[in-house]
Amino acid sequence: MQSRFYLSLLLISSLVLIAFMGIAFNREMNPEWKKYQTEYKDFLVKNAKDASTRQRAERIQIGMQQIYIKSLERSDRCMSCHRGVENPLMAEAEQPHRQHSGNYLENHPIAKFGCTVCHRGQDRATNMREAHGEEHTHWDFPIIPSKYIQGSCAQCHDYEMLRQEGGEKVARGEELFRQKGCQGCHKIGGKGGDLGKDIAGIGSRPFAYFSMKHVVGDHNLYNWVKQHFDDPRAIVPESEMRVFLTDEEAELLTTYMMTFVTAEMPRNYTLIKNVIQPKIDGESLYKMYCIACHSDGRVSLYDEIFKRTIPAIRNPAFTRSIDDEHLRTIIKEGRKGTQMTAWKVSAAGLTDADINKIIMYITMNRPEKKPEPFGFLKYKADVRHGEELYNIRCEFCHGAEGKGGEGFLGINLRNPAVQKADPEFLAITVRDGREGTPMVSFGMKGLKLDNQDIADMVAYVKTLSQKK
Amino acid sequence: MSNSTQTGLGKYKENLLSIKKSFLGSFLRSGMPTSDKSRTAVVVNNFFLHLHGAKTHTNTLKPSYTLGLGLISFFLLVIAFISGGFLMVYYSPSIGTAFNAVKDINFVVISGKLMRNIHKWSGEAMIIFVLLHMARVVYTNSYKRGREFNWVIGVVLLILTFVLNLTGYMLPWDQLSYWALVIVSNIAAAPKELTDIFGITQYFDIGGATKEVLLGGTAPGQNSLTRVYLLHIILLPLGICTALGVHFWRVRKDGGLSKPDIVGDRETGVAFISPPQKTGGIFPTHKTYGLMELARGRTPAVDNDVENTVTSWPNLFVAEIAVFIFTLAGVIAYSYFIDAPLKEFANAAIPENPAKAPWYFLGLQELVSYSAFMGGQGLPGLAIAGLLLIPYLDREQEHFGIWFSNRQGRMVAIESFIVGAAAVIGSLAFVINFGWFRNWWPKIHQLWIIAINPGNLLLGFVVAYSLFVIKRTGSTRMGAISLFTMFLVCYVILTYTGTVLRGPNWEFYWSASQWPIH
Fold it and tell me: What is the pLDDT of residues B23-43, one digit of tens each?
């Protein structure tokens, strides 16, 4: 008789060990893909039309499939489950057996391109959960939903070709990107404002860059970008982004965002048919860089996010009273203390020619009739009287001592664009008001101040820059 | 007569036919053991078995005495070695290929994922079982009577276990590896905190130099991986094998496992040993005399009776095999269900937040959050020194081999457990609610924080309390029980805090679900 305690421990442990070796072996011998390949093979054998096809179907070897593409550094094992991807018989089949849709594979042979270069997902994984890169699989680029997949096409193709040949979604996304003024705040290729985050490479940015706390549904890059377009502040509470998009537009722009990837495709993969850039006129430039804040520029609006009024820069009342030179200074240098970016080539990257085009577009509707001259120099201005008047008349909107800022309707009067402006221009503005803005006329047509009072006020405003 | 008449071919044929018998005979030498003499011969004649005594004391076989903890630790190491050899076939230590190699081990190597899990979990289980084994040794008062230095080797083995685990953690070159390497190299550079204060960093930058030696540069990269790999697969395994060899050898030289001076008769004949099978041998039942009993000296076996011993074959070996299969089954079952983590590819631009070291170092990281130098090097150094000193500061020879020595010991252990837990939880609660010097006086000199921080105070309290126990009970043995209990409690609670209760920016959260990100 042997030791009962140790013998029973040995017996029970051995049974547990054998059991686990058994189920581990079973799991090892029956990977997920084996089931799908068997289904695929059975389907082909069953639906074979004649003896030779049946024989061919029966000869299919079940085993792990891999496409190794050296130049793309990928080992795509997707076909371990999706074996029917090239088989026309599988056109109607359920996933994972279905044939690839469209005629994409004709021009993109799987042996050269593999799968993940377009669809993303984890190339080396051999089970669905990890291959598709679902949540909590620690894979930064889960499989890309089909509604955004055209973003992958732009890795190799130009937008003109995509527009005509099956990439219309991403091409429209690119168009929208230019029309919605995204570059007003986001710099792309050295051009654009810097209010917004850098979006270069956003399509290939690791998961950990994004705060996923408020994302609804799966936590991944695509949902983050889409939902951020829907409502930026729902995803990033402190965001100042101004977007007004329909659901469809948000989807198109999300698709376009997926084209911003850091890795470049090898040259023998790219196909650029149209090298000629579309001609960009003043209107397009205005849309690219200005429209996000200034909208169509006809009316000025108090913006809840910026906490200030955004001037109506295409309103005749504005364009009439400002000359091109003054406009150019503002555009090139920006307005310090506001969200207005300095657009000169060394800052936001616009060339003088571009700026001229924008100015031409802004002043397109400038009335022929110049405002009646004020003749500021004729008046002997009394600054103290101007200050009294300012405190009564102007402070409510422009803030104490012209500081303006958050919560005030009026602009900050201390900024260089005002302080360096011609007093004549300021006096005309006060006298006639600004159509399309809350700035009303203070002259005889409006609040009945005489020219002397206006001159006093302007003189006072001009002293503001010296105050603390 | 028959031999001489045989032809050469006849002899050849006979040898050929008896090959099974002669091979087994050459392998086992003394054949299947049927007598105490042949059972002894099995042990003595076998390379692997002769580390054991021919006879084993029944107390050694008593499961409730050893709990099998040392054996389990050793078998975990064996399992880790074997599975590690398997993984080495596929792994390649380059930052360009390591991550993909691990992915392939997970995805395409047959049983690769299971092997990786086994390797990972057996290694990490070692930490737990080595600590438990140490606890057994302390609580059964077994670090005495010649075993003092073996305790020192045991502490060295504990450190090697930690470092082996840590270096293995860095090999997959994922985000976990990378940021653990960053944290560890920063801990290595912790003396900078001290040299900065004295303004001697530019002449004597011991912290920076250590960090550079560890990383093979100033930031983690290929050189670091090469070094970590070298440590993990050659230097540390060689070290642990050597230390383990000495550890076992000394156990044998010290007369086997510790045991009480008096083992009652009721201890014999219980379920875990077999009654003697007297079918051979020359000596009467239970009696075997070896050279040990004839020699003079302080070797514990000398002058001791050989009562209550049984032959190692089969009693001890059945027990060992049972524990081995038990360990293996446990590791495989755990590995079947729980996968070893593998995060995204290492990315220096995306710090993990919180960037955490592996769990077994998170107690240290908690201390590091007070002071890099004290938490990373000062306090663990002192704690290890304290562990090493236990057998030299407690030299009371009574109650050897008895769990908790006596009733008083049991009370002291329970009491120290409660007091230690209260102290560590109290200090953590204080820091979490009220902050520390840096929060109160932002401009305070760092020296003050190095000198006075919750970690130091905790260590001071633990030492003071065990001295108080010695004074109160008049027994250094009680002090040792108290000190070790509180060390263990502090380690467990600090580790738990660092693992579960600390979130992004090392802020306090009750659970990870409350973290503000993702």
Answer: 888 877 766 777 778 888 888
